[in-house]
């Protein structure tokens, strides 16, 4: 053991260091990577694009054959025309935007206090506030509660439910971040006579930008794609894109219309897809930060 | 500099009323419904009558005796374990395959993140089309083997749950891959260099150095995969709707179905079961995984 380990180090250190590196550079790696991507991602994605470009007869049995006639844009137009896609799009925005803004503002306010105050009370509140990350929401009794509050089936009720679900995530992320902000920055503002509201708005909130960006991305992803909680709270009252997709796809009338379902899927994925392509570096670093510490 | 003097104003500088709005929302929309779970699971609340009466443990006994409680519990647990296994295996495999920062690898990584940002419901419908008996996957297999293949991927009472778990893992493996890639980046190059000089081959290096050092990434990935799949709904609803024969009926699928039938108390009971299952399982799992990290 020791002989084989020490002899190359003394005899030819450069060669020993280089030799295994060269072996590590497996020349077929790019080919393998592309092959895996084509098989695992390319097949399903091609199925979606090809089927979404066919006419009804050709799309009856979705297969991997190329469409004889590319009608992707026509199918997009049909989906826009028949389906309630635009109202669903605005319905999605109507519940997502206020919910995201709400959790960010309320979550940051709470996280600032929880990150700064010591003591048993803050620790207990913090533990309770972040328990929602793990615990599943009580989806059935939420509906009952919303009825009692007169919020059943309303956008406000849905916004409240989403806020209740994702405040924990924001408080968890932001509290950790607040603890890394030096106290001196706040002190300086305080010496200048700033009260807590001013300190929070002028000093803390701007510093939270990176962590709030990460939280925004995560929560937008969840809410934009959520169908389960929306089915309980606003199903049949307000359309969102996933709710609409669910109704269209599970309605008997549309069961044979794979081309329209897939055209719908492409259209509803586009907003997040474009956001992702534009900001992929930030999104990826935001999501992975904190997970591996 | 002024520890005593600075400590006192600090409480006033961070007033407790800043917590109030967040706590109000949390209490109203999260904790009260959760407490209601413990109340309404013991009633006969339904859409068929207006009065809600106390019913003791009737809901539990009826769900237990007709077998749905144990079936849904079993299905949810099996699904969660399978998803955690597949998602981590795929994610780690991808991370190792795409570890080096080449242009091809970077592009492929981005491509694998697309399913993560797609709607799970949409992913479910795509795979429903792909896995039909006369669907695209059987078409590929048929072309490869030269025979007519018509495997009912989504119609097998034993194996469909595995197939659906693989679809779930397919959707989320890009996220696990990113977490593993970030974990691999944190491993000190000198440690690997030393092992290489000691003559360790790539498998030994992976097994005894890189994988143990990935413990934080494993914790995060296993915990999120378990939680995500125990709360799963969209993919299963879009592919099998709980079938065939209830073999993929997750707790959430059952809750949705019985809620739609107006059996609110039964749905609440299952919601409570899910709550207890997650509470009983998630915390010990996370603690166990954290302890593994500490050993290093």
Q: Determine the mean pLDDT of chain A.
A: 84
Q: List low-pLDDT spans of chain A.
A: 1-18
Please report which band the strand proportion of chain A falls in: under 5%, 5-15%, 15-25%, 25-35%, 35-45% or over 45%. Answer: under 5%
Terminal Cα span of chain B:
37 Å
Order of helices and strands of chain B: HHHHHHHHHHHHHH
Largest sheet of chain B: none
Précis, in short:
With about 290 residues, chain A is mostly helical. Chain A contains 15 helices and no strands.
Please render the helix and strand layout as text.
The complex is a heterodimer of chains A (293) and B (296).
Chain A: H1 2-11, H2 13-24, H3 29-52, H4 56-59, H5 72-82, H6 85-116, H7 120-130, H8 139-149, H9 155-178, H10 183-191, H11 196-207, H12 209-225, H13 228-233, H14 241-250, H15 258-288
Helix pairs in contact in A: 1-2, 3-15, 5-15, 6-9, 6-12, 6-14, 9-12, 10-11, 12-15, 14-15
Chain B: H1 3-13, H2 20-40, H3 58-65, H4 68-97, H5 103-117, H6 120-131, H7 136-145, H8 160-185, H9 189-197, H10 202-213, H11 215-230, H12 234-239, H13 251-260, H14 264-295
Helix pairs in contact in B: 2-14, 4-8, 4-11, 5-8, 8-11, 9-10, 11-14, 13-14
Structure write-up:
The complex is a heterodimer of chains A (293) and B (296). Chain A is mainly alpha-helical. Chain A is 76% helix and 0% strand. Chain A is globular and about 75 Å long. Chain B has a single domain (37-46, 56-294), classed as MetI-like fold, CATH 1.10.3720. Helix content of chain B is 74%, strand content 0%. Chain B has helices at residues 3-13, 20-40, 58-65, 68-97, 103-117, 120-131, 136-145, 160-185, 189-197, 202-213, 215-230, 234-239, 251-260, 264-295. In chain B, helix 13 (251-260) runs antiparallel to helix 14. At the A-B interface, helix 1, helix 2, helix 3, helix 6 and helix 7 of A face helix 1, helix 2, helix 5, helix 6 and helix 7 of B.
């Amino acid at each position: 053991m020791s002989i084989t380990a020490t002899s190359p180090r003394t005899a030819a250190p450069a060669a020993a260091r280089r030799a295994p590196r060269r072996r590590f550079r497996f020349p077929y790696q790019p080919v393998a990577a592309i092959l895996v991507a084509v098989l695992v991602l390319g097949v399903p994605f091609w199925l979606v694009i090809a089927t979404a470009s066919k006419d009804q007869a050709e799309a009856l049995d979705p297969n991997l054959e190329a469409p004889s006639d590319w009608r992707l844009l026509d199918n997009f137009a049909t989906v826009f025309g028949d389906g309630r896609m635009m109202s669903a799009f605005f319905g999605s925005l109507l519940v997502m935007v206020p919910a995201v803004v709400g959790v960010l503002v309320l979550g940051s306010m709470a996280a600032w206090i929880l990150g700064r105050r010591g003591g048993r009370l803050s620790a207990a509140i913090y533990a309770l506030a972040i328990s929602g990350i793990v615990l599943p929401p009580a989806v059935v009794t939420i509906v009952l509660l919303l009825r009692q509050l007169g919020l059943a089936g309303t956008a406000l009720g849905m916004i409240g439910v989403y806020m209740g679900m994702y405040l924990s995530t924001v408080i968890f992320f932001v509290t950790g971040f607040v603890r890394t902000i030096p106290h001196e920055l706040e002190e300086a503002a305080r010496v200048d006579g700033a009260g807590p509201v001013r300190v929070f708005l002028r000093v803390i909130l701007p510093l939270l930008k990176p962590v709030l960006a990460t939280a925004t991305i995560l929560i937008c992803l969840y809410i934009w794609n959520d169908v389960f909680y929306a089915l309980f709270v606003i199903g049949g009252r307000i359309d969102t894109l996933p709710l609409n997709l669910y109704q269209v796809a599970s309605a008997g009338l549309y069961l044979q219309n794979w081309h329209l379902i897939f055209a719908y899927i492409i259209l509803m994925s586009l907003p997040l897809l474009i956001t992702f392509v534009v900001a992929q570096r930030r999104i990826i670093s935001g999501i992975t930060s904190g997970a591996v510490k | 500099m002024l520890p005593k003097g600075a400590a006192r104003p600090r409480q006033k500088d961070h007033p407790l009323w800043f917590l109030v709005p967040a706590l109000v929302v949390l209490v109203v929309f999260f904790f009260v419904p959760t407490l209601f779970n413990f109340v309404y699971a013991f009633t006969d609340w339904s859409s068929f009558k207006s009065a809600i009466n106390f019913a003791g443990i009737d809901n539990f006994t009826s769900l237990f005796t007709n077998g749905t409680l144990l079936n849904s519990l079993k299905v949810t647990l099996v699904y969660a374990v399978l998803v955690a296994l597949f998602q981590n295996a795929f994610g780690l495999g991808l991370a190792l395959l795409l570890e080096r920062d080449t242009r091809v690898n970077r592009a492929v990584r981005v491509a694998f993140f697309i399913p993560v940002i797609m709607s799970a419901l949409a992913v479910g419908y795509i795979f429903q089309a792909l896995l039909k008996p006369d669907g695209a996957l059987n078409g590929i297999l048929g072309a490869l083997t030269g025979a007519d293949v018509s495997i009912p991927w989504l119609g097998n009472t034993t194996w469909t749950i595995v197939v659906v778990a693989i679809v779930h893992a397919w959707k989320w493996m890009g996220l696990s891959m990113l977490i593993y890639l970030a974990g691999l980046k944190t491993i000190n190059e000198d440690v690997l260099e030393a092992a290489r000089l000691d003559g360790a081959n790539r498998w030994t290096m992976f097994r005894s150095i890189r994988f143990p050092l990935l413990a934080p990434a494993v914790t995060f990935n296993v915990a999120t995969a378990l939680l995500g799949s125990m709360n799963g709904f969209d993919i299963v609803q879009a592919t099998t709707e709980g079938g065939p024969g209830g073999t993929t009926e997750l707790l959430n699928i059952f809750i949705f179905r019985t809620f739609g039938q107006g059996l609110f108390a039964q749905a609440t009971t299952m919601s409570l079961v899910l709550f207890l299952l997650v509470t009983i399982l998630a915390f010990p799992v996370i603690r166990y995984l954290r302890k593994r990290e500490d050993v290093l």
